[in-house]
Amino acid sequence: MRLASLDIIRFFAAFAVMLYHYTGTTGVFFNALGHVTKYGYLGVPLFFMISGLVISITAENRLAVPFAIARFVRLFPCYWACMIITLIALFLTNKLDFTPLEIAANTTMLNDYVEIRNIDGVYWTLQVELKFYACVFFLLATNTFQFKRAWLTVWMLLCASYIFFDQPRILGWFIHPTYSPCFIAGVAMYLLRKEGANIFNVGTLGLSFILILFTSSSKVDQFISEANSAETFFSLLTIALFFALLLAISLDKIIVKPRKIYYILGGISYPLYLVHNVAGKQLIIGLSPLLGTTLSITLTCFAVLIIAYIVFMFVEQNTAKPLKKGLESILLGGKS
Fold first, then answer.
1. What is the number of other CB atoms lying within 10 angstroms of the CB of residue 324?
2. 230 in any annotated domain
3. What is the pLDDT, as a whole number, of residue 203?
4. Taking Cα atoms as reference points, which of 200, 235, 275, 241 lies closest to residue 49?
5. CA geometry: angle at 303 spanning 119 and 45, to 5°?
6. What is the secondary structure of 116-177 as a DSSP string?
7. Which of 4, 10, 131, 231 has its CA 20 to 30 A from that of 186?
8. What residues make up the domain containing 324?
9. Can you list the alpha helix ranges (DSSP code H) found in the chain?
10. Which value, to the nearest 10 degrees, does the dihedral of the CA atoms of residues 35, 41, 46, 51 take?
11. What per-residue confidence (pLDDT) applies to 108?
């Protein structure tokens, strides 16, 4: 089941992160626009909440291997294409300083486990997502995914222990502790959608919301330089609004009729997110001496949108089905 409203929100989140990197951060801050776009980093926790909801829907009544194949097909071809574009941009601007080993490690999305730097800083969020997918795969493989109350309770307790007591420290190896409440909130919204309101579902959603606000308040300084109390307040208010919007969508209080344009917007959000940062900034740097900062950023936004569309239409759309079919043939004997 695909919700058109989530496609729109995905695109909004990716576009907000792009504007944050181009106009809302120190060094690229200009005019009044930056006072709004500096909150664009909040598209990331929104992504994670969406992921918790969507993965819960897609993993229900599914076997582990088909789930893994579907996630691999969705993530990796587009990721590899965007990584190549980023490497080309760095090469053309004489900024390519990654070794073959570093590049090879990045192709796996697992480079953080061996402390190898990311080619693009935004890749850290993919590693957070990958850990979540791995945990879902484990639950499916052990036939325990359906026991959501049990594993959600354990997950919530472990995250709370890590957030407040910094224990167990090994937790980060399996799942991202401080962003886990976002995923938990998404799963809780799915349960509310499926089962309706009960003490567990409402309680889990409420506790996850509290933990999201608590952890988010401590992260504001990481994304907004020398954030003051007003900026912290508006950051938390924005997260609360995102939370409420996603909850309304999950409960069908907001229904958007499916259209091809929404499908495309949702489709390009992933490559847009992947390619905008390093490659986009190199383009801005190259154009700024000739066109000025404002025009350079505007043209770069359009250029990145076009690149994202091309990657979605000609890479993801053309590789997904044959790659999925090939993997199913190898791993499942052609059975999905």
1. 17
2. yes
3. 97
4. 241
5. 55
6. PPPSSGGGHHHHHHHHHHHHHHHHHHTT-TT-HHHHHHHHHHHHHHHHHH---TTHHHHS-T
7. 231
8. 4-331
9. 4-19, 33-37, 43-59, 64-92, 100-106, 124-141, 148-165, 171-174, 180-195, 199-223, 229-250, 260-275, 278-291, 293-311, 317-332
10. 160
11. 96
In a domain, 129, yes or no: yes
Listed residue (325, 317, 281, 207) closest to 17, CA to CA: 281
- How far is 173 from 113, CA to CA, in rounded Å? 8
Asked, for residue 303, whether it belongs to a domain, the answer is yes
Six-digit token pair at 137?
A: 């795969």
- Six token digits for residue 98: 């990654």
Residue 91: what are its φ and ψ, rounded to 5°?
-65, -45
Token readout for 82 is 């965007």
Q: What angle do CA 85, 91, 95 make, to 5 degrees?
A: 115
Provide the b/e sequence for 218-240 (b: ≥16 CB within 10 Å): ebbeebbeebeeebbebbbebbe
Residue 336 confidence (pLDDT): 55
* Domain assignment present for 336: no
Euclidean distance between CA atoms 105 and 218, whole angstroms: 31
Report pLDDT for 333: 81
Distance CA 72, CA 49 (A): 20
Under 8 Å between Cβ of 41 and 21? no
Tell me which residue of 121, 116, 90, 91 sits closest to 101, measured CA to CA: 116
Residue 140: Cβ-neighbour burial (10 angstroms; 0-12, 13-18, 19+): buried
Please state, in angstroms and rounded to a whole number, the distance separating the CA atoms of residues 183 and 151: 13
Q: Which two tokens stand for residue 297?
A: 């950023």
Within 10 angstroms of residue 58's Cβ, the number of other Cβ atoms is 16
Q: Are 163 and 211 in contact (CB under 8 A)?
A: yes
Q: pTM for the full model?
A: 0.95
Q: Which residues of the chain have pLDDT under 50?
A: 29
What pLDDT is attached to residue 140? 97
